[in-house]
Design brief:
homotetramer; alpha+beta; five-stranded antiparallel beta sheet; two-stranded antiparallel sheet; 8 helices
């Protein structure tokens, strides 16, 4: 379960986002908004203007004809947030079948502290003379204990579905996600926003980087009117 | 609003179904079920067997990564049934903007009678010496009256959104429909079935004819296990 | 299919909206947002403040635990718009079984004209010396022709599912609609808005009048932040 | 976050399912299927027969007017399966705000082994002379290590959203769930089934026990035709 596939954008220490498939482009939005065949375009300027108009006035249904499939590798605490988005399709690897190695856990590149103002967001911090090294030790050490215990249970014949109870939320998982552009707007708006967990923002930005060129007018309009 | 576009399948006297766009094929199902990259196929036999297994055991989520966009022209009484399918995306032409010509109405090729057994389905019938010609006269005549009245109201300056109240359910409309294969199975199962209205069956069969070759193993499995 | 049931709000010439059932109230929103049991309320002021906060910051999921069932009678051209709202449940009377009387059609109380500015909305108008009476004659007359033709086809044994092709969009239908408050907000926002067809607005206002008292803090917050 | 609220059914070592609210009963199904007001019932026998007919012929929409809200406490590995059901509403407690005590983790009452036949389900097992006691030790010990590390990170000022990466899948969470009967049928069918993880089955059975009496004809028909 390791390695970054070709064309994927690496995220965090061992995750990635990969664009697997797409349906449509800016013209799919234009075409379905006009429900016309034959001469579908009214010229570049008129077409782009229509897309802007639809976005500005929250006429979002034409954007549902634009679709994407992604392949994602992320920690469970990220996957749990992701799968709360109900308009879309998920297929996740079954943890009941996976063998965990000790590289299959999330490690941060920087440790943050709770934001004093709202208790939720977290910001950069001066960790004092010692720095944040002790936290790395703590994390590594705990993951190692967990991994050892998990392997002991599995090797003793305990069912995976029970043994996984000790696997941490920092374990990586993988899934396929198909979503239309309208539902994607909602995801990006919530998850690229500064109040989202920093690690979630990293994934949302990777997703966004992969789709922007697929429908440039659409995502320009999205940035102008929804972000 | 007339004419059959290239590649479209004609349905009824003036309708059609056209496949506009697709995302994925049989391998999209296989890939998302296995959530693997790199060597995605395990050989044709194993791949097809997997698709069959998923269908047989009602593991339908991998089929959601297979998507289609259709362009449809059908009478309003058909569109109303179609749009009851909530898992999917619709963009319909606005009747508030359309000018109706007298070819924009549905005419049957044969008249059926109520089925005596359940009062719902309808079957072929012997209409006696006179045949069903009087029904054609009745239909044409009523459409002509309606069309004349509609034009009178519009020409007098009445708002289209009010004038359309007299337009008949047999008026043709057009829409774009995007749907994933799982939701499409449900549509096809209900609408190709013999208890569906014959005109609806005709549309469902046209839809099916357009997608079958896009994912042959998937639709073969669909026929074997869901129909 | 006529008559206005007890407790229903009459709409248009022969329609109504009736509240059949509800689940929850303001406290359902508070409770699910806090996911607490035992002492669920933190006092009226704090509870109302929480509801306002959720609405203002678009945290709409807690409002999904508040549910309503309505019984509606409306013209088909209204029902068609209504059923485009996919998050909700509809059960409609089958036109295949219904006998139409000549009171079962929509008649306007006033005729509007197309708005010159956007071609869509319509406004009040001075119809000149003759007034709008000719439009009433035209409408009545056309409905009568249609009704006569429909009855002729039915009496001759033609299947209802074919005969209904000549029934006008102004025919009344009935349906049950269950919807959660979050999806209802979206409906109300779109359909009470001035750009919606006037007849649709009338229905949306009737729906709103029936729910407001069921969750007064919720709908006050809705008005302040979403309308 | 501990204690079992009144009326809740305890599940596993520290979980529960509680029925918070309901909308409708058997008559809601009957009424919406008939879309009638006034004399809604046609007698007990006819009403129950209708419910059976709807279920047998997969006419499931009338069951969507029957709704339930549950309050659930379960381990994260169960919650993750639960929230894959997209037709329904979830509000979960935020782990970012919760303090974990050492009773907030799942402990099994019996250990199972992997089923040899399909590698997924798991069955009872003879664990030899030593029994399964060593697994209990292993689990307790690992939970204690995790809890200690989590508290160390939190006390040092590390953001909860990062520290939670070491929390195990066996941690309990709480959520509210609103769902209509049709979507509930699907949940129960999948999760009460013998191929589901035993701990998941326990929750599904608790859910079922709470709703059965709310709509006895409906759930009797469900058992006869869907299980």
């Amino acid at each position: 379960m390791s390695g970054i596939p070709n064309g994927a954008i690496p995220v965090l220490n061992a995750g990635f986002v990969r664009l697997v498939d797409t349906m449509g482009n800016d013209m799919s939005v234009v075409r379905s908004a006009r429900v016309s065949y034959g001469k579908e375009s009214k010229g570049e300027e008129a077409d782009q203007k229509l897309i802007n108009y639809l976005m500005e006035h929250s006429h979002h249904t034409p954007f549902e004809h634009l679709n994407f499939t992604f392949h994602i590798r992320c920690p469970l605490f990220i996957a749990r947030q992701w799968m709360r988005h109900r308009i879309g399709s998920f297929n996740e690897i079954s943890l009941r079948y996976t063998n965990y190695g000790d590289e299959d856990f999330w490690h941060p590149t920087e440790w943050r502290t709770n934001n004093k103002h709202n208790g939720q967001s977290s910001g950069e911090v001066d960790w004092g003379a010692e720095g944040s090294l002790p936290f790395d030790y703590c994390l590594h050490d705990t993951y190692r204990d967990i991994d050892k215990a998990y392997k002991y249970l599995i090797d003793s014949g305990v069912a995976r579905e029970q043994a996984r109870a000790i696997l941490p939320m920092g374990s990586y998982t993988e899934f396929y996600w198909s979503v239309n552009a309208r539902s994607l707007f909602n995801f990006l708006k919530l998850r690229m926003y500064e109040s989202a967990q920093k690690e979630m923002q990293d994934y949302a930005h990777a997703v966004y980087a992969l789709v922007q060129d697929m429908a440039p007018w659409t995502f320009e309009a999205f940035e102008n009117h929804m972000m």
